[in-house]
UniProtKB/TrEMBL annotation, chains A, B:
Name the UniProt record assigns to this protein: Acyl-CoA dehydrogenase C-terminal domain-containing protein
Cofactor(s) it depends on: FAD
Signal peptide residue numbers: none
Acyl-CoA dehydrogenase/oxidase C-terminal domain span: 282-451
InterPro entries assigned: Acyl-CoA_dh-like_C_dom, Acyl-CoA_Oxase/DH_mid-dom, Acyl-CoA_Oxase/DH_mid-dom_sf, AcylCo_DH-like_C, AcylCo_DH/oxidase_C, AcylCoA_DH/ox_N, AcylCoA_DH/ox_N_sf, AcylCoA_DH/oxidase_NM_dom_sf
Top-level lineage group: Bacteria
Domain Acyl-CoA dehydrogenase/oxidase N-terminal: 42-158
Domain Acetyl-CoA dehydrogenase-like C-terminal: 470-585
Limits of the Acyl-CoA oxidase/dehydrogenase middle domain: 163-272
UniProt family annotation: Belongs to the acyl-CoA dehydrogenase family.
UniProt keyword list: FAD, Flavoprotein, Oxidoreductase
Length: 590, 590
């Protein structure tokens, strides 16, 4: 299996030439000590570190997986050493709060670090990823006392974190959570219940694991408004804040999965485990969902990384594998056959992967910029706008980037032919690993309901209007050969939006019926906008990345408009047929 | 993992009510001793046998896989007993030549048996499947002497068969085969070379394995016209035609794959292995390709079986799993939540699976009827027509049924949410197993080139014309509510066909550029025709399968026309942009 260096030039192109990170930070008045060169040096170092330490573990992590014995979980060979080196090199603390030992670098760099973690070894990526998420939540919502106890360990990476939401009978429907928390006299709580699908719930990488657990207080209202959030450490701390006593919780088992085998997915039992309330009672879900935008953006980026890695492997193969002659005559007459990259259908698959990976990177980083605006901007209007944009884009990024990753990684197998089905080439692993991205952190269906139900209908003008305005302004101000097409698909998107909002007034099922098709259409149109941007940036390039690089971007933009964007015609046509074809069927008629 | 009985009622509906098997056999003047009731009794018995003996092995077959030691391969637990029972019950001999111990039943029943084998246990299905293919080839092309030696064992199933085509450097491009055959003085040949991806190349189910091997004679012309076909048994026979002496060939290793782990995929070394020429020298590829229609139809049906099985599992889950409330108010107010089948998007996924499985069954059986017409009809015009239709439909069936199986089995995972990713539920296995169907027996890209290149362009009027005429006649003669839509998509298909054939004259790459999109469009339009037929048969039903059953068919037809068929709009739009967006990119610009 190949361990191909990540496309750092592509990261640079988007961050510097398309989204102008220097101007972005200058406007926000933060991170100005980090110029483009320094930013890219950090990215480059991260990529080199992971290429050396994480990439070589990827195949074995899948093959060996995690092993559960008693209450302990052993990660695949090399993960312990990788994690140690990762923390010692300071990668765990990259954007951590300096007050607790963090380096205070930008969120954007952290996003890219997550992208690279998944690119080199997806099974590994969730250990730092979940720890980062838990740390952020505690930074935002915990008391100073809890912060002082837990943030130093989580920031350095010495301790790890998890999110414990799902129970056997409830995944999507968290209102049904019945893990129970009993208050103790000392202000702590005893928590009892079973949580499933807990990523990194137990492992051998750290001395302590900090669980963020949704549970219900004795007097809590039913449903989603009666759920509170608890911090429950695996090891209780002594007065020096050192792990001292084992808490009454543990991994009952680990799941055997389709992929992502290096990532331990645990069934966690909490048996009167001692914990601390975070935030107000009964507001646990609200807090958890505040963190959701970031978590979902990261999951979308995992899809992007899988797409990119599958593409890089496939591209090498397509240039090397000799099979059949070009339809227009031999290209390498001295060889027994031409490389398969001469065949139009192989190119169609490669370009689909490329268009998704590179366009989606721009979309994901743009969303990352919105998070930084929300964090740092002093301008309240700008913050409110970024907040709306992010709320609108998040479900699209989570679902669209991961759904197209399934298509792209499937092509990654297909380009290899029968060899793609063999494990050692690693292509089938990308497809298996990628599948979880469409499921965890809210399935595609849930994202689509979030978009069409909660977001589009509740805050319509302020939401699609915002993104549509950005696209319209681009069309008006920036001439590209793709503007006419972009305009017509923008119009189609807006018509379709109006259609759904009107239908929804007559029948609430119309929203769900249109939801996934509408989300995908939104993704394709937004991606078209970014490809028009990429074209424009390549046309007016800084020259630093080479002529082939920029020409490749312009031609990929042309490919996207010709071969991918027209999918919207089908999506519009199916949406227009409404909910009846789905809802007419009686259960007994299936 | 569920072991749900196969939908025998659906098989009956297509075979009896849609495709009228009684009339079909009456017209052909064969198999008239088998009326519909007997036909369905055989199907029912096959399903019961496999439900009892094969279904329970499916999960473990994936988990345990095959094991290679020395030169021997052990199949998963239970396969030896299953195979013995399968042969003893006469299933192996179902459509075999009575002269060699076969039962002489119809090819159609054999197709359905293959469908059921894959439905209950895909990893098992290739052992009888490959044996059947090898037996058929020998029936058609071998000398009487070879038939007498090898057909009795292959017909009873006492011996197994394989097809050995692929070599490390050539899969698609069989002109590059360099396995060498040297003639011996006694009329036999010594064959030397390495073959890869050999399904059932070695296993513990039978005393002998008969390999059909492509190799090159010393004086053979280069390329595809210099390839001959050899029968090479694992065990050489003594004068009583009993396996007596080990031939010099063996499995060097087995592949570790994405799925289909119960099926042994072997690297086979032939080291001066003794073999017999089948057919004329240098005509091996022609013979092999004569068998290809059947093999590709069977692979398409494997896709259909995966789709069906994933649907059956998902349907049970969707009716049982309680999560969230219906958008139109609680459906089971006494329960904590509604079953997820109330949600429109879950229905969209279920109905997509259902529409593909049931419509594709009609298409596959229709192709099976053409094979029977070619076999049995006395009317040479009818045979020629069936031959053309089959040649046209085969690549569509192979590629379309397997590509939509990837979509359908992906939905099968998605409907289960996170639980779909866990191995024990079996849903992710269907997706992994199904992937090989888009690869072996010629990838989707190869099927698409066969359709658009060889078949559509070389024999245009006689091919698409034939299928288009069938659809047009149906529209003219059979009123259904879907006829207007069917007509407009038929027109779209014909326009697109003309467009591609015109483009192809200017630039040969236009064919490859359009090929997969065009194949998929062809599949969607042909499937629309079959769904209109299914609607019509359900409307004018025989009443034997219940009102819910027939209503379900009519509503699934409506779903197909509303939510699936419009995909053609996108396919047409992308095809119309031609080859340039694919071919413009220089290799260095990727």
């Amino acid at each position: 299996m190949a361990n191909i260096p990540a496309p750092v030039k592509d990261i640079q192109f988007i961050a510097d030439e398309v989204l102008d990170l220097a101007a972005h930070y200058q406007k926000l008045g933060v991170h100005q000590d980090i110029d483009v060169e320094t930013f890219m040096t950090i990215v480059d170092e991260a990529s080199k570190f992971l290429h050396e330490h994480a990439g070589p573990l990827n195949r074995n992590a899948d093959e060996q997986g995690c092993r559960h014995e008693g209450q302990s979980v052993q990660t695949p060979d090399g993960f312990v050493e990788l994690y140690k080196a990762y923390c010692e090199s300071g990668w765990a603390a990259l954007d951590g709060d300096e007050a607790y030992g963090g380096q205070g670098l930008s969120y954007w760099l952290q996003l890219i670090l997550g992208e690279l973690n998944t690119y080199y070894c997806p099974g590994w990526s969730n250990y730092p990823g979940l720890t980062h998420g838990a740390r952020e939540l505690i930074e935002h919502f915990a008391t100073d006392e809890l912060k002082a106890k837990f943030l130093p360990g989580l920031t350095s990476g010495e301790w790890a974190g998890t999110m414990c939401l799902t129970e056997p009978h409830c995944g999507t429907d968290l209102g049904l959570v019945n893990t129970a928390a009993k208050p103790n006299d000392d202000g702590t709580y005893n928590v009892t219940g079973t949580k499933i699908f807990i990523t990194s719930g137990e492992h051998d990488l750290t001395d302590n694991i900090v669980h963020l657990v949704l549970a219900r207080l004795p007097d809590a209202p039913k449903g989603t408004k009666g759920i509170s959030l608890f911090l429950i450490p695996k090891m209780l701390l002594n007065e020096q804040n050192e792990p001292a006593e084992r808490n009454t919780l543990g991994a009952a088992s680990i799941e055997h999965k389709m992929g992502l085998n290096g990532s331990a997915t645990c069934v966690m039992n909490f048996d009167e485990a001692k914990g601390y309330l975070i935030g107000n009672a009964n507001e646990g879900l609200k807090i958890m969902f505040t963190m959701m935008n970031g978590a979902r953006l990261n999951t979308g980026i995992q899809g992007l990384s899988a797409t990119q890695a599958s593409y890089e492997n496939a591209l090498v193969y397509a240039k090397e594998r000799l099979q059949m002659r070009s339809a227009t005559g031999p290209k390498l007459p001295e060889k027994p056959a031409d490389p398969i990259i001469v065949h139009p259908d192989v190119r169609r698959m490669l370009l689909t992967q490329k268009a998704f990976a590179e366009g989606n990177r721009a979309l994901a980083y743009f969303a990352g910029q919105q998070i930084e605006i929300i964090k740092h901007s002093q301008d309240q209007n700008e913050v409110a706008r970024a907040d709306r944009l992010l709320a609108f884009l998040t479900p699209i990024i989570k679902a669209f980037l991961t759904e197209v990753a399934m298509e792209a990684t499937n092509y990654g197998v297909q380009i290899f032919g029968g060899h793609g089905y063999i494990r050692e080439h690693g292509q089938e692993q990308w497809h298996r690993d990628a599948k979880i991205f469409t499921l965890y952190e809210g399935t595609t269906g849930i994202q689509a309901l979030d978009l069409t139900g909660r977001k589009m209908l509740m805050m319509q003008k302020g939401q699609i209007g915002e993104m549509a305005d950005i696209i319209q302004n681009f069309i008006n101000e920036t001439p590209t050969p793709h503007n006419d097409a972009l305009q017509s698909y923008l119009d189609m998107w807006q018509e379709t939006t109006s259609f759904i909002t009107q239908q929804a007034m007559k029948n609430p099922d119309e929203v769900g019926a249109a939801s996934v098709d509408y989300l995908m259409m939104s993704g394709y149109v937004i991606l078209a906008y970014f490809w028009a941007q990429l074209h424009n940036s390549a046309e007016n390039n800084k020259g630093q990345l080479g002529a082939d690089f920029y020409n490749g971007k312009k031609k990929t933009a042309a490919f996207y408009f010709a071969k991918i964007l027209p999918r919207c015609h089908a999506l519009k046509a199916t949406i227009m047929t409404g909910a009846d074809p789905l809802m007419d069927m009686a259960e007994s008629e299936f």
